[in-house]
Write a structure and sequence with these properties.
With about 350 residues, the chain is α+β, with helices and mostly antiparallel strands. It has helices at about 20-25, 30-40, 45-65, 130-145, 160-170, 190-195, 265-270, 275-285, 300-320, 340-350, and strands at about 70-75, 80, 90, 100, 105-110, 115-120, 150-155, 175-180, 200, 205-210, 220-235, 245-260. It is built from ten helices and twelve strands. α3 (about 45-65) packs parallel to α9 and α4 packs parallel to α5 (about 160-170).
């Protein structure tokens, strides 16, 4: 992964590289068939050991850095394939509809831009499938490693449910979750339609907040933040030059549920910081081959995915150990270091002749 190859068959390009052989402690590189056979023997116990190794690397970094605030982002990412691999299924895919895929759920740490844990799933499940137990496990491990740190979570609308919110309240963590308010037309949507007075949030955006108890829920009222932004919507019809109208101004709405007690502006900016996780997924897929499914066995593909995650986390670990922090904790919770991507490090260090 660190060398930049995506397929198992690419081993032929570096099988005679003395530096790689010395690093691995080998006299000869195994063939593709040997590697494939070894991957087919991987069992659940081995996968569990690799997962603990991957998680411990991240937790040790959190303990070493002594962070006062730890922000966990939860989201899934589609790994599409043309293979008839074990565990793949036809699920939701905006780019390639009907493609077989896996749909793992990730927990990432915003401050270190590392992947804390992965929950493996088939591609035909909802984003919140298995999320409750996964969240409890991740929060529990972070609490055990850093008992003095404040833990906070960010999630999208797929995780909005009574069980998830009740679980987060019991865990004693702060959170913000996007609300798919279209699912509650008789409650959430009505508040927007009936609202007349909106307060200014920032240029082009206004808000109001309200404690709401949904009719179908049994838990206490929650704090809901309603935000609307003015955005330009491009006209796609026929345009007359003498009546030129290139854009229409409309409102775009979003709703956030949270237990944070800070100002609405800070909560909204904090929740919008989730966008950094999408950049992390993009780097994992483009630079670390996370989007490639190499084998027909599920455990083999799990090991390949975890190898991508470990390779990514190690590049972050290298920079965290030998560089000072570039920024302090801010409202959006960006990474505390200005990390170089794995592709940049590969070109500057690994793929340069005469460099060690």
């Amino acid at each position: 992964m660190l060398l930049g190859y995506r397929r198992l068959r690419d081993v032929q390009f570096f099988k005679d590289d003395p530096v790689v052989l010395r690093l691995l402690g080998l006299h000869h590189m195994p063939t593709v068939s040997t590697i494939s056979r070894q991957l087919s023997t991987v069992d659940d116990r081995s996968i569990g050991g690799i997962e603990r190794l991957q998680q411990n690397l991240v937790l040790e970094a959190l303990v070493r850095e002594q962070l006062a605030t730890i922000t966990l982002d939860f989201d899934g990412s589609v790994l599409g394939t043309c293979r008839h691999a074990e565990g793949v299924a036809n699920g939701f895919n905006k780019k390639k509809k009907g493609q077989r895929s896996y749909y793992p759920l990730y927990a990432t740490v915003a401050q270190t831009a590392q992947v804390l844990a992965v929950h493996h799933r088939s591609g035909n499940v909802h984003d919140s499938n298995g999320a409750k137990q996964f969240i409890e496990e991740c929060v529990g491990k972070v609490k055990n490693a850093c008992p003095k740190a404040k833990i906070e979570l960010r999630m999208d609308g797929a995780f909005f449910s009574e069980k998830i919110i009740e679980c987060l309240d019991e865990l004693g963590v702060e959170y913000s979750i996007s609300v798919p308010f279209e699912r509650y037309p008789t409650t959430i949507k009505c508040y927007i339609e009936e609202r007349e007075r909106w307060r200014r949030l920032r240029k082009g955006a206004k808000f109001f907040d309200k404690n709401i108890a949904l009719d179908s829920w049994k838990i206490a009222p929650q704090r809901f933040l309603f935000v609307r932004d003015r955005h330009k919507e491009q006209s796609k019809g026929v345009i007359q030059l003498d009546l030129f109208k290139s854009h229409d101004f409309n409102y775009r709405y979003k709703v956030i549920v949270t237990n944070k007690t800070t100002k609405v502006k800070h909560v909204v900016e904090y929740h919008e910081g989730r966008g950094s996780q999408e950049g992390l997924f993009t780097e994992l897929k483009s630079e670390a081959a996370m989007s490639y499914v190499p084998c027909n066995g599920w455990n083999a593909n799990k090991l390949f995915l975890l190898s991508n995650v470990i390779a990514h986390n190690l590049t972050r670990e290298l920079q965290m150990r030998y560089r000072e922090r570039d920024r302090n904790t801010t409202v959006k919770r960006p990474a505390l270091w200005k990390f170089r991507k794995i592709g940049t490090l590969r070109k500057q260090i690994i793929q340069r002749a005469g460099r060690l």
